[in-house]
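Review form for a predicted model. The reviewer records the input and the model, then writes brief findings.
Reviewer: anonymous (R2)
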Amino acid sequence: MAGHRAPKSAASISLGDLAAQVTGPLTHQTILSAYASRFTIDTLRRACRLFDGDLKLFLVFSEIAHYNMSRALHALSVREAADAVRWRVVLRALQTQKVTPCNALSISAATGLPRETVRRKVKELERRGWLVREGARSLTLAPRAIDQMGAPGRALMDEFRETARVLQVLDDAFARQQKHRGPAAVSTS
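Model under review:
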């Protein structure tokens, strides 16, 4: 039947049609959340590729990396470095900071993964050469992992900055729209 059109599927519905079908108010927060989720999903897709589909391995790796680096960054009080001169001092000091190792128990507590699962993932990261064990309980990232994650990490940061920029533009537009509605308008955010 050449003239017969199939009804719109859920996959091809417009944002306006979708908003009309929502029973509660569609807030600007909902739209911002939907846009932000694209970044999260893209990050998880990238993690699936980099970690051969093993998101638990990605989670353990990420938690170890975060733990290793956050202590060093916190020790520098980066928040106090406001101007370019102080940032140079902070960046120079960062080179001398020690990486704080962690252990499987702290990773298990942070991720909610069973300790035995964390141990298996740690062994896999060691096998790949991405993790160094110093003693029985000290886990740090290996230089190889940092090298291999450099380009994906930069791409992730670029995407994060672009997502943040777009979210700010959208949020500003919603604020202007709300302002033009006047003080009598009820906020839906």
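Findings: The longest strand covers residues 131-134.
Further findings: Confidence is low (pLDDT under 50) at residues 1-6, 184-189.
Recommendation: see findings above.
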